Amino acid sequence: MAHGSSGLKRLVRELARFGAVGAAGLLVNLGVFNVVRHLTDLQVVRASVIATVVAIVFNYVGFRYFTYRDREKSGRTRELTLFLLFSVVGLVIENGLLYAATYWFGWDSPLQSNVFKFVGIGVATLFRFWSYRTWVFRTLPVPEAGADAEAFLTVAEQSRRPEPQTTQRVS
What we know:
By secondary structure, this protein is mainly α. Helix content is 78%, strand content 0%. The chain contains five helices and no strands. It has helices at 2-39, 44-67, 76-104, 110-136, 145-160. α1 (2-39) packs antiparallel against α4 (110-136). The chain is elongated, with a radius of gyration of 26 Å.
C-alpha cells in the first residue's frame, strides 16, 4: 500500500503543478483573446487561435521548468515536436467548440464567446494533460528497489568477511 499511496501523492502533486500552470495559461489565453477581440476587427475564432498560440508558448515554459522539471530532458527536439503536435490537437478541440457555438448556433455575444472559449479550454485541457504526461514529458525510469537492496547486502556481506590470515612458519 505504501508504494500505491506514494504514486497517488506524486499524481496529486503533478495535477496541482499542472493546474497552477494551466490556471496561469488560462488567464493568458482569455486575456489575449479579449484584448485581440476588442482591439481588432478579427473574427472571434481567429482571435481565439492567436490567444491559444500565445498560451501554448507560455504553458510550454511553465510545464518544462515547473510541472515536469524532473522528467526526461534528453530529447528536446522530440519533446518540443510532440508538445506542439498535441497542442495543435488541443487548439482544434478548444477552437472547434467555439467555432460550433459561434457559427452553427449563433452564440457570439462577448459573454457567450468567453463561456464557450472557457469550455473549449477545459475539454482540451483533459486531452493535453493525458498526452503531455504520457508522450511529451515522460517519467524517468525508477531503479528497482530490489537491485539497490541486493547491492547493499553484497557490500555489507563483503565487509563482514574476515580477511584470510597468513601464518608464518618458523623454521
